[in-house]
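re: ur question from earlier - yeah i can do the single chain one, its not a big deal. heres the input i used so u can compare w yours
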Amino acid sequence: MKALVFHGSGESVWEDVADPGIQDAGDAIVRVDTVTICGTDLHILKGDLPEVRPGTVLGHEAVGEIVETGGDVRTVRPGDRVLVSCITACGRCRFCRESAYGQCRGGGGWILGHLINGTQAEYVRVPHADLSVHPLPGAMDSKDAVLLADILPTAYEVGVLNGRVRPGDTVVVVGAGPVGLAAVATSRLYTPEKIIAVDLAPARLDAAKRLGADAVAVAGEEAEPLVADLTLGLGADVVIEAVGVPETFEMCTRMVRPGGHVANVGVHGRPAVLHLEDLWIKNVTITTGLVDTRSTPTLLRMMAAGHLPASSMVTHTFPLDAMEEAYDVFSRAADTGALKVVLGEQQHDVLMVRAA
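and the output i got, formated as C-alpha cells:
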C-alpha cells in the first residue's frame, strides 16, 4: 500500500510500505477513506517530537471502513464505516477507567502516527478497536466526520472544558487555526458574553467571525489593548492558547483576569517563561492536556443533529495520493489560506476495488 512516511526532521515521502495486519486480538484493520493533516504532524516534521522514529507512517485522524478484526473485537465488524479516533484506549488501565484515555497505560493514548504507524495511508491498524473507533451514521459526510477524530474533541475538552467556560464569560482564543476555530465553535455551546479571536492571518480571523467570534484582533500590539478595553481592564475569564509557541502562551497569561483560567491546547516545542512573579497573586488556573476523546460520542450526536459547524473549516480537498502537495499547502497556510485540508474522497472508488 501507499503511505506518508516520516524520514526524519523535514523529510516525509508518499511511498510503498507493507500492508498492516492483525497483531493482537483487539486490533481492527481500516481501509482509509478520508484523512486530514494536523498541526501536530507539522510539529513532528519540524523535529519537535523526537520520540517519533524515522520510518513511521504519520497521521492520527481518519474515516474508513473496517475490513478485518481480531477475535476479541465485539463492537464493530467488517463493512462498518467508522471514525478512527486520534486516541487509542485499552479500556482496562486506571486512566481508561477514569475516562482519561489520553493517558492510557495499557498500550494506548496518542500512539497512531506517533509511536506506531498512523492513518495517512491506504490502510491502518487500530489497536484496542472496541474503544478506539466509532461507528458513523450513514448520512454523515466523511469530510465533516473526520474533524471529530481530533480537532473538535481537543478544542472542546482541552480548551473549553479545562478552561471552564461558563455563560456570560469573556473568552479569548489565541490562534485561529483549525483547533482554535473549533474552540470558538464549541465555546458558543456555553453562551459566553463574548468571544475574541486572536491571530496574525486576516483569513483566519474572518473564519473565526463566521464561526461565532464577536471580535477579532491581530496578534501583537492590537490584541492585549482590545481585550483590556472590552473587559474594562479586568481581563478575560478564559484564555485558550491554540498556537504552541512561548510568545502566545506568555501573552495568554497577561490577558487573563484574576481568578481566571488559561487553557493551553497548543503543542509546544520550546520552553515558555511562566511569570509567577506576576501570576502568584492573581489566583490564576493554568491547565494543559492531551485530549481524552471522552466527548467524541456526544460531539458525534451533536454533529449528526446539525448543531456543530464543521465543513466550513475545510478549505482544501485532495485525493489521497496528493499527500505531499496537501502538506505543502497546509504548511504554508499564511500564503494559501488553508485551514483544514481533507484527503481521500476522490479516491474512494479505487480503494473500494482493492478492499473487495
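The radius of gyration is 20 Å. not sure if urs matches, ping me
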